[in-house]
Amino acid sequence: MSFSNLFNSSFTTRNQDHFASIVRVAFSDGIISQEEKAFLDRLSQKLNISKERYATILNDYKSHPINPPASLEKRIERLYDLARMVYADKLKNIYEVTLLTKLVIGLGFPLEIASKVVSTSLKLVSNHVDIDTFKKGMNTIL
Q: pTM to 2 decimals?
């Protein structure tokens, strides 16, 4: 296996694991709403996830680990996607917030500020900020 194939394989796996984490948030209330489904469809394209792999992940999302990115910027980008999923159906519930808190810790954010990270990220997303504004807002508390 060549070095470039190894890198592509690792990158693909991380994207699939990230997508599975977002599917986990979508399923936290037991259903995927139309808004959540639309968001998942768009995100799967952005992450280059094939339709076949998409279906497999939907059926077996719990088998994918949370692979935190090494850089803070990438962790914040993943948090942005996760927080947007919580608000995709315009309703946040306790299950989604609890799961998001677990995912925030899994992404490598400090346990001591996990609830603040969650509340700040959800507030920013509810204000429909773009990724750059989200990053700036999150960097103020990190």
A: 0.81
Q: What is the pLDDT along the chain (142 residues), one digit of tens a residue?
A: 443 343 467 888 888 998 998 899 888 888 888 888 988 999 899 889 999 999 999 999 999 988 888 899 999 999 999 999 888 866 667 888 888 898 899 899 999 999 999 999 999 999 999 999 999 999 999 9
Tally of structural domains, the chain? 1
- Cα separation, 22 vs 35, whole angstroms: 13
Q: List the domain range (segments joined by +) for residue 30.
A: 3-139
CA-to-CA distance for 92 and 96, rounded, in angstroms? Answer: 6
